[in-house]
Batch of 3 targets.
Target 1
Amino acid sequence: METVKKIAIVRANALGDFIFVLPAIRALKETFPGVEIVYFGKAWHQEFLEKRPGLIDRVIVVPPYPGVGAAYDYQRDEAQLDQFFAEMQAEDFDLAFQFHGGGGNSNPFTKRLGAKKSIGLQAAGAPPLDVNVPYIMYFAEPLRYLEVVSKAGAKTARFEPEFESIPSDLDEIAALIPDYQQKKLIVIHPGATDLRRRWSPQNFAAVADFLIETGFTVIITGSDWEREVTNAVIKNRTQEQQVIDFCGKISLAGLTGLLSVSKLLISNDTGPLHLARALKTPTVATYWCGNVITSPPFTLTTNRTLLSWMIICPICGKNITGPDSGKKDTDCNHEVSFVDGITVEQVKIAAFDLLKETNSWPQEAEALSVSSSNYI
């Protein structure tokens, strides 16, 4: 292609999914200087990225479209969609990239944007784009999208997701904790959309007690819909000194600021974990073994990933990695943790190691750290 001036990116889903495509977008920016990147996402993308310098120049909120920004059974408003796609075709995109899954719904959506060339993922049975990359579930997500943009000649040496906080991100934490700069902050995020990826609240509570005893200020984060699990963490604690409850109290920008000044995040495999890693904040994460294939850390200097190898549901006995695991009529949907085999002791050791390596472990707690480590 002779000149690339405007590129559409289709990726209307969650926070972690957004983080995973950043290296691919960087590759496009580096390969096509001066290109305008237009991100097709959700309302939260627009709110979060507006006026934020970075790789994305503009966000267009996807209208309700089955499988792309809306439930699969959503009734399409054809008149609204016709108007939307007419406006998008007038944008005159040079390239449109589909990063939104296997393409059953997202490939027709991407084709209707009217770009000169469409490139993206294609699962078995999905309609094709102009250029297609096979969609196979178990593959590292950031590398998946780098392969997609490579079909347009885009490349980068920076394959790890990177994101930067801006000064206004700190406004909310400064209002809630005016002396935050004098505290050693550690964030615990106990929620996750998939309940099978949740380490138990009792375990998070035990780790919070350990860190508070050591002298850290522990902050519990979560969205409003995660309040049940954050409350359970707080209820199961034994230390008198309280954790700080930020559940539902800060925006995504506020969470970005909080993570940027924290010594450590302890979390399940979920969006805030991937945001923290992109911010280069040290992390300790509990992972189901299958998810570490799709969303792994790329460095060990500041990240520890603790794996659960459980693959058999204790309720129905189904192997959730088996050949039928993708069939809706046979899927195991039991809401049981697949990561609780990871012990509290493992998480304590990982947290202690990272905090020592980053010079964040308080000297006055050396005796405690030795006894705790020996006990672990």
Note: The radius of gyration is 22 Å.
Target 2
Amino acid sequence: NGAGDFTVEDRSGRNLHFGVREIGMGGICNGLALHGLRPYAGTFFVFSDYAKPMVRLASLMQLPVIYVYSHDSIGVGEDGPTHQPVEHLASYRSIPNITVFRPADQTETAAGWAVAMASEKTPTALILTRQNVDQIAETSKEAMKGGYILSDSEKETPDAILIASGSEVKPCMDAKKLLREQGVDVRVVSMPSIELFERQPEDYKNAVLPRNVKARVVVEASKDFGWGRYVGLDGAILGMESFGASAPGSELFDIYGFKAEPIAATVNEVIARCS
């Protein structure tokens, strides 16, 4: 705000009106980064496919461009399956040398922005929701580590571990309360960035996800590709196996099981399987 627009008549502004041309937007941002500036670009996450060739080049050229992608899941709702980027997280996470960061609330969003601004040779994709999300009291700058214990079990060894990113973190916190009433004590791990978590020391990763806890459930409203390393053969992934549907986002989260009750039921199933 207040920085002016870059136009043919006035080149002093800092805001560029790219129009609906994501690949051109990405190419221009790469050029700006090569000239020592710190550009960011934004669009709906489903349209990130159009920008991807330039995102790939930014990763290849070690340019710290920031991409702000909104409307990140089935929460888009009424626009229907064409606008619900269920496979895009897996696609972006597969790119070498990029940090994909999907925050759960404003605290984690600030942490993701701090990571992006501190990066010198790695682009960052901030993956944000369309729908409002609750601020979670337990979130912190620990999110800069990519994954951290958001809410621990009372037991030294939890009965199970819930792992989630973005808008699915709060339903996991709700599921934890429900499970506690059933006598099941779980740990909730927020993992906004797999890439940042994998850069942490092994002792830290083992402290967050101890190897002796086999009962693990990942919850993310996207294709489950890539999460298998964290749940192993005994755990479960609550993800998307379709392109979604046309309905209000809150209804879709109910339909596809991203609520406390089905999450808790899945945890109990995994615990029984691991017993």
Note: The beta strands are 40-44, 66-70, 99-101, 124-127, 148-151, 160-164, 186-190, 216-219, 236-238.
Target 3
Amino acid sequence: MAQHTGIYRRPDSRFWWIDAVLPNGERIRQSARTEDRQAAEAYLAQLKLAAYKEAHFGIKPQRSWQEAVIRYLAVKANLRSIGDVRRILRKLDPYLGHCMLDEINGDLVWTVIQGEMKKGNKPATINRYLATIRSLLRMARDEWQWIDVFPKIRLLPGEVERDRWLTREEASRLIEACPAHLAALVRFALATGCRAREITGLEWNRVDLERRTAWLNQTKNGTPRGVPLNSDAVAVLQEQVGQGTRFCFTYRGKPIRWEVTNSAWHSALAKAGIEDLRFHDLRHTWASWHRQAGTSCDELKELGGWKSRSMVDRYAKYATEHLTVAASRIENGRGGDVLTFPTISPRSNRKRA
């Protein structure tokens, strides 16, 4: 029956199914998502009409925001931050969930901005939403060819870059206040700049203490990288030997699967008298210490596994040694005399004429 009508029943589903070749040559096999045969046939007719228009007149069939979200999540499924992507898309659903992609314009984007501002969200939070919309629409245009254009989406100004790092004395206080398993994580983060998941996912078969190197396969950007281990990092790892057979860092012999910034983290911060600190700020601390010690931005980029130099330039302000000579040029008693250039007034010019 499906060969003649394109509509058929499956014994394992209550819905009607579609198996048909569209006018543009594409074969589709999918559920019609309806138990009504006439509704299923109408849906197939709609698909055929859209394909005919696209094939003969170049008119793209309309695609919905929800269709795009499903495909976008499938493409991004391997991201370490996929949970954050899903959360943002759920927040955007009340604004865009009812829209077709070609209906999304500047006014709708402004509606998102205004709605989130009324909720009291800061520019940084709203910018995450705007960046996700822009990324999805760009993919729909450039990779899927679902749309031809999308509105220009600018991020909001006024986003304050987080600048939180620890002094050596604060770091020592924090380590002393942490329980042993958490102190090990903190010390390793400060020694290597590794992220929390990179540390808790580090396995012994990816560590060579003699060569003082670790190889990470669970990185934020999905690209494996090597991490040189300084003496502090080696010392932390040597203390963990024998506590876990597979993972380097464990809690009571078991892998650390939970969020690092839990009650133990907050208790340690309170005990150490440290406020407004996230575990990821330890990576900022590591990078800041490196720049203060004279490590170049290019070296820091390689050490931290950043893909672009722009991500590292934020730490340039912590190293000013290369500007010391320039700063000293106007010290008291130095710098030479200021030259005075003679000027000719317009009146004198008229007299000479």
Note: The beta strands are 7-9, 16-21, 27-31, 207-208, 213-216, 225-228, 250-251, 254-255.
